[in-house]
Design goal:
The protein is an alpha/beta fold. The protein has a domain of about 100 residues: Ribonuclease Z/Hydroxyacylglutathione hydrolase-like (Metallo-beta-lactamase, Chain A). It is built from 5 helices and 6 strands, in the order H-E-E-E-H-E-H-H-E-H-E. Strands 1-2-3-4-5-6 form a 6-stranded mixed β-sheet, covered by helices on one side. A hairpin with a 5-residue loop joins strand 2 and strand 3. Helix 2 packs across helix 4 and helix 4 runs parallel beside helix 5. It is elongated and about 110 Å long. The protein starts with 7 loop residues before the first helix and ends in a 14-residue tail after the last strand.
Length: about 190
């Protein structure tokens, strides 16, 4: 008896088209998804000193064996992009902690760029406030009317000497979940809070 092979070519063609479509879909969506996944915890502590350009800027990324990420400082103003590029390179999508060692522009100048672009769980800084003071109103003489409040104008292009701190504080207030001040002789265990 002869076996019938009619219609077999159509089934093979449909199978080839389906396999080709599946391979194309994986190439378009599956491969980038696999590449973007954070690395599995390796059981090793990772410490990366980030290159934040010439000069005195500092920025250090620590990734614990459990995957908890800590960024210490973010370099000088304008160096936030370099820090963000390094975070992307090490597949860090969320910072569990950002530590501002002290309020100098070469340490937290780029922090506002980083905090505004990536989720930050907890910000720890030393509590020194360098905010630009708000101008105090002039006292009024008895019976005098207060001057009308001027209409809001564009921000002045002249920045105060502590503008970097004002930008850092605004970013922290808008983006970070919570803020802490370090306490003497307190230690932190880097356990993932995911």
């Amino acid at each position: 008896m002869k076996r019938s092979t009619r219609g077999c070519g159509c089934a093979i063609a449909v199978l080839v088209v389906l396999l080709g479509g599946a391979a194309g879909a994986f190439w378009k969506w599956g491969r980038p998804w696999l590449k973007a996944r954070p690395p599995k915890p390796t059981g090793e502590l990772q410490v990366h000193v980030l290159d934040v350009g010439p000069g005195e800027g500092d920025s250090i990324l620590i990734v614990s064996p459990t995957g908890t990420s800590v960024l210490i400082d973010a370099g000088d103003a304008g160096k936030g992009k370099a820090v963000l590029a390094a975070l992307k390179q090490y597949k860090i999508e969320k910072l569990d902690y950002f530590i501002a060692s002290h309020p100098h522009p070469d340490h937290i100048g780029g922090a506002d760029e980083v905090i505004n672009q990536i989720k930050v769980g907890t910000v720890i800084d030393n509590g020194v406030d360098l905010s630009t003071p708000k101008p105090s109103p002039t006292p009024l003489k008895k019976g005098a009317r207060p001057a009308p409040t001027p209409a809001p104008t564009r921000k002045s292009k002249v920045q105060s000497i502590n503008a970097f701190f004002d930008e850092y504080r605004d970013a922290v207030d808008n983006q970070a979940r919570n803020m802490r001040k370090p306490k003497r002789e307190r230690s932190m265990t880097l356990v993932a809070e995911r």
